[in-house]
Design brief:
The chain is mainly alpha-helical. The longest helix has 33 residues, at 380-412. Helix content is 71%, strand content 0%. The two termini are 44 Å apart.
Length: 530
């Protein structure tokens, strides 16, 4: 007999949080995500201070990214054959001890890199186990809000960990104390996971000799899908342009993460840990960009908004690179005019904060419409196969600038590199205008609005459409004989990315109506799961 559809408020976030096992899993995610982003900030400061090398910071960021690219395809195969609860506990404990190890090695660069590679590799196995636990803990009707909560937390953790709590702890107690605090976060998260119900594999998925064979098949599948994705991109120029825009956006965030400490030290005259003065207004600008698109995007063609955003972003980044000269020029003009004292507005720091805020708005004008355009242009029947490949392509494309800008900045200076990056971004916007020509009729009708969704939730990737009615009110424990498999988490983009790139703008398509696993892992615009 079909059960009545539950009340609407039963699928609210508050109703989901009343589920104690889900609440504990969410707390584990919050502790590990915030702690992981704190570590990104703390290790960046440690390496920048100990080496003074931008190249060393580039290498650090790559230790966060490379393991996800190399091992994400095989992680799900092994997670499917282990008790997910045990995987969550062990991976959190291992990461906690790894950060204690980082504390004891001090500023030994090689040891820091090796321990961080180990931590990032362990995280690759943690992420699909965490994603697979969600449909185990909540009824099917609550899968949409549950995944939305996890996606929202994933992005909010970046702001809290990297831009707020991390800098605050480093300022008060130093980066070494931050490492001990983060290790404690992971041990606490392991404690939360201990309370979760067991989730052993089905008899068909126990660890056997076939696991190695299936691992090989998973790797082969990645290369097969890569070829398929490249062929699809080659045959669809619109997809190529969307990927180009997203690749530029993802690369820029990684580049700013590499250049940030030296920019704060050499251009702004601050300490390395103070480059948060750029990150915070940049993040606030991205949120403002979403609000503006939500309010006025329907009035503007999407392609023109992206191209304008690229050009404006280039100009604003060039302004940040030349902020010292701009500040001195305004100070001289103010002194010559002899009017009201405007030194607070013409100071170097004030100029950088303002430019970073408007650069964030421009970044939002590029990343969000590009994301929406990609979502609309991918046919539903190829989304699952192509989208993971697109994630990988964007991630791999972002490696090159991260690798290159560090050594170049050490040779010619951070300011000049930032100026060259700004010119390249602005030129890409102009090239898009020239090469793509006048707007086609379909492009004229394609608008840049975010949609009829809450703008803040949309900015954080947590927009939640109405859930379809479900007949099953119980958590999906695979009792129907269908195992809920942990899917490999899509490869993440740079560690400092503002938000995830999802195929339909919501968690809806990630949850199969048959109770299949909902992947709450990060996307190319997101910070990687730590």
């Amino acid at each position: 007999m079909t059960a009545a559809r539950p009340a609407a408020d039963d699928t609210s976030a508050i109703a989901v949080f009343r589920n104690r096992p889900f609440l504990l899993l969410w707390l584990a995610q919050a502790f590990t995500q915030i702690g992981g982003n704190m570590v990104i900030f703390g290790l960046t400061v440690i390496i920048s201070k100990s080496t003074g090398s931008t190249t060393a910071v580039s290498a650090l960021i790559l230790t966060f990214l490379v393991p996800a690219v190399l091992f994400s395809a095989v992680a799900g195969v092994y997670v499917d054959r282990l008790d997910r609860r045990i995987v969550l506990i062990v991976t959190n404990v291992l990461r906690g001890f790894a950060f204690i190890g980082v504390f004891f090695v001090g500023d030994n660069l090689l040891a820091i890199y090796l321990l961080n590679i180990f931590t990032s590799t362990v995280t690759v196995f943690f992420a699909p186990a965490e994603a697979a636990m969600i449909p185990r803990l909540v009824p099917k009707r609550q899968l949409l809000p549950a995944n939305g909560i996890f996606t929202l937390t994933l992005n909010a953790a970046f702001a809290l960990g990297f831009a707020l709590i991390g800098p605050l702890v480093v300022k008060i107690a130093g980066p070494q104390a931050l490492l001990i605090l983060v290790a404690a976060f992971y041990f606490v998260a392991a404690g939360f996971c201990i309370t979760l119900p067991a989730y052993p594999p089905t008899s068909a998925n126990v660890m056997t000799r076939q696991t190695v064979s299936e691992t090989e098949k998973a790797v082969e599948s990645v290369f097969w899908q890569l070829r398929e994705g490249l062929a699809y991109i080659r045959d669809h120029r619109q997809i190529s342009w969307s990927l180009t825009y997203l690749g530029i956006a993802a690369s820029l965030v990684g580049v700013l993460g590499v250049l940030g400490p030296n920019f704060a030290l050499r251009t702004l005259g601050l300490k390395e840990e103070d480059f948060v003065v750029v990150v915070l207004p940049l993040g606030a600008g991205i949120v403002m960009g979403i609000l503006l698109l939500n309010a006025y995007g329907r009035l503007l063609p999407r392609r023109r908004v992206i191209e304008f955003g690229l050009v404006a972003l280039g100009i604003l980044l060039a302004g940040m690179a030349l902020s010292g000269q701009i500040s001195r020029f305004l100070a001289r003009a103010e002194a010559a005019a002899g009017l009201v004292d405007l030194s607070a507005l013409t100071s170097l720091l004030a100029i950088v904060v303002v430019l970073a805020f408007f650069a964030g708005i421009s970044y939002g004008f590029v990343a969000i419409p590009s994301q929406t355009q990609l979502q609309e242009e991918l046919p539903e029947d190829v989304r699952g196969r192509v989208f993971g490949v697109l994630n990988m392509l964007v991630s791999v494309a972002s490696f090159l600038p991260i690798l290159v800008v560090g050594p170049i900045a050490d040779l010619i200076g951070t300011t000049l590199v930032l100026l060259l990056v700004a010119i390249a971004i602005g030129a890409s916007g102009i090239a898009s205008i020239v090469l793509r020509g006048a707007l086609k009729p379909a492009e004229t009708l394609s608008r840049a609005e975010v949609g009829r969704r809450d703008p803040i939730a949309a900015a954080l990737g947590a927009e939640l459409p109405d859930a379809p009615p479900y007949d099953d009110d119980e958590p999906d424990d695979g009792g129907d004989g269908a195992e809920i498999e942990a899917q490999p988490v899509p490869v993440a983009g740079p560690a400092f990315t503002a938000g995830p790139l999802e195929i339909d703008g919501s968690a809806a398509d990630e949850v199969g109506g048959d109770g299949s696993d909902a992947d709450a892992g990060p996307g190319p615009g997101d910070p990687p799961e730590r």
